[in-house]
Amino acid sequence: MKAKIVVGLQWGDEGKGKIVDYLSKDVDLVVRYQGGANAGHTIVIGSKKYVLHLIPSGIIRGKLSYIGNGVVVDLEELLKEIETLESMGVSVKNLKISSGAHLLFQFHKYIDMINENEKGKRAIGTTGSGIGPCYVDKYNRTGIRVGDLIDKTLFIQKLKERINFYNNNFKSKESFIRIDEKRYIETILEKREKILKMIVYPDLFATEIIKRKMKILFESAQGTLLDVDFGTYPFVTSSNPLSYAAFTGSGIPQYFDYKVIGVAKCYSTRVGNGPFPARMDEDTENFVREKGKEFGATTGRKRNCGWLDLVALKYAVFLNRTDEIAMTKFDILSDMKKIKVLTGYEIDGKRLENFPRNVEQLSMVKPIFVDFEPWSMRELEDLKRKKFSKSILKFLEFVQKSLGTNITHITTGSERKDIIKINV
Ligand code: GDP
Ligand code: IMO
Ligand code: MG
User: Fold this and answer.
1) Is 41 a catalytic residue?
2) Which atom of ligand 1 is nearest to the CA of 418?
3) CA neighbours within 13 Å on the CB side: how many for 270?
4) Given 21, 28, 41, 281, the catalytic residue
5) What torsion do the CA atoms of 56, 250, 261, 371 make, to the nearest 10 degrees?
6) Which helix (H) or strand (E) holds 412?
């Protein structure tokens, strides 16, 4: 029994959804283990485009799909997602949710907005999905879990307490919006009915998975540089996208070997605030953003675009114990005048040996770039016939050597079919 973990090696939006969809063909179970509806994972199949926020991408192939305890579940978003999927002909009958996952409520989203407004210029630029405040409740031990939905009376009592807490404690804030207790509880109870049948107890679920030696694919959300412990804190999300969080975030004990597939674009993007040393010049960035459709899958915000940052990538590859890399969006850099790769950071003329220790340091670095010859779309097509052009080969060999890890797949378009297995 061997599991696979798909993680983002940059700042999110690397193309994890597409890679999970590809790999899910050969597995029995796909698991989300952290984050919430801040994620937006896109899968394009012919003329159909699916964007998943909470539900594992394996659902598109009808695979058993599990939302683990590490995820924060917004019932409104979840039901919207279920409706959209069903309207597109995708069944969610194989969707299960851990009783240990925390519920994310409207007041979490309001607190997220209040916090951001209060920070002013220092705002994180969150997706506004309530992620931070919901994890605060979890770790403050004041959260409400999916399993609490089962006992209706107790659930109502717990939710009332939390609504009162919010209404009383945040009312003096400038952007405060009051929650109408009665109306809000009614809407949540409606949703509760639809979710009850999906709830499973993690120990029983995991026992079954292990006993049946199921092939598991773990799907991370966000990316390593947004990890709350190892990312560019405080410009991060509030969970651990790192590979090894897959086990705590799912409650599936690691009684098996696993392989980590890191996903990275052949350039970088970052949405939200925080330093981004590899950022392209304005004209190039505008060009790449338009060509690469670099707008948030969840919020529609413009993503900042930069060149491939090998310093940050090396750090991420190491932390995840990455076995192989899937590199995406090669078509976007095709036929450009020049391509750059960031190979080092300098402060006061001195090369840094490690990834900067804090955002203050990261925002001071001078990026060192190396130029590469661009490739053409025709050359990308040739890869399907195992024919590597000089420019692609040079780029791939350089990146692999710098990272000490093989690139095993590259993608050349948004569609399911645009994935090429390579061996350089
Ligand atoms: P995720 O959050 O990591 O799953 O990534 P997103 O779905 O947010 O963003 C990746 C975007 O790039 C999506 O719109 C994908 O359809 C698209 N995409 C993925 N691979 C490729 C590729 O090779 N070429 C192009 N043009 N688009 C791609
Ligand atoms: P996927 O799974 C890209 C970013 C936000 C912000 C920071 C904190 O699609 O890769 P949060 O709402 O989590 O409190 O925001 O994290 N962010 C993402 N950026 N892709 C994502 O998910 C993201 N989820 C959160 O823009 O900078
Ligand atoms: Mg995304």
Assistant:
1) yes
2) 23
3) 27
4) 41
5) 80
6) none
Residue pLDDT, tens place only, 402-422 = 999 999 999 999 999 999 999
Same domain, yes or no: 165 and 138:
yes
Tell whether ligand 1 has an atom less than 6 A from the beta carbon of residue 418: yes
Length of the chain as a residue count: 424
* pLDDT tens string 231-253: 999 999 999 999 999 999 999 99
What is the domain extent for residue 361?
A: 264-421
CA–centroid distance, 381 to ligand 3, in Å, is: 26
Q: What is the CA radius of gyration of the chain?
A: 22
H or E element in which residue 104 lies: strand 102-104
- For residues 133 and 112, what is the distance between their CA atoms, to the nearest angstrom? 6
Residues with pLDDT less than 50, the chain? none
Kind of pairing between the strands at 95-98 and 64-67 = parallel
* Residues sharing a CB contact under 8 Å with residue 357, sequence separation 6 or more, in sequence order: none
Atom of ligand 1 nearest to the CA of 14: 3
Q: What is the CATH number of the domain that holds 338?
A: 3.90.170.10
